[in-house]
């Protein structure tokens, strides 16, 4: 029986991004050995979108209030790319990770599967 999902973020600076997830976002974690941290994520859902080609995967965190979340994270030194945008299905911001990657965060306007 499937009991969870494991997401991998590939990065040029794993230590910096691990510290960000641990210290800035405050995600609980386990050390699987040798400082290799695995972080607990909030409840998750998966969506399948049509595309020109297969294989791309994106990770978005979901919040209740994007303005409050961006203000809180910004006060903790988190860098964002651009402004919060309205996508119709939700309001979206993009976090710039210390290792150079991007992490989406949005306030959903659609039904979510988190509490099923």
What is this structure, in a nutshell?
The chain has 116 residues and is of the alpha+beta class. The chain is built from two helices and seven strands. The protein has helices spanning 14-24, 66-75, and strands at 29-31, 37-39, 60-63, 79-80, 85-86, 90-96, 102-108.
**Shape type:** globular
- Beta-strand proportion: 15-25%
Helix count from the secondary structure assignment:
2
How many beta strands in the DSSP annotation? 7
Low-confidence stretches: none
Q: Biggest sheet, open or closed, and with what strands and sense?
A: 5 strands, mixed
Percent helix, as a range, is 10-25%
**What would you call the structural class?**
alpha+beta
List SSEs in N-to-C order. HEEEHEEEE
Radius of gyration: 15 Å
| Mean of pLDDT | 94
End-to-end distance = 17 Å
What does this structure look like?
The chain is of the alpha+beta class and 116 residues long. The chain is built from 2 helices and 7 strands; from the N terminus they run H-E-E-E-H-E-E-E-E. The protein has helices at residues 14-24, 66-75, and strands spanning 29-31, 37-39, 60-63, 79-80, 85-86, 90-96, 102-108. Strands 3, 4, 5, 6 and 7 form a 5-stranded mixed β-sheet that branches. Strands 1-2 form a two-stranded antiparallel sheet. Strand 5 and strand 6 (90-96) form a beta hairpin. The chain starts with 13 loop residues before the first helix and ends in an 8-residue tail after the last strand.
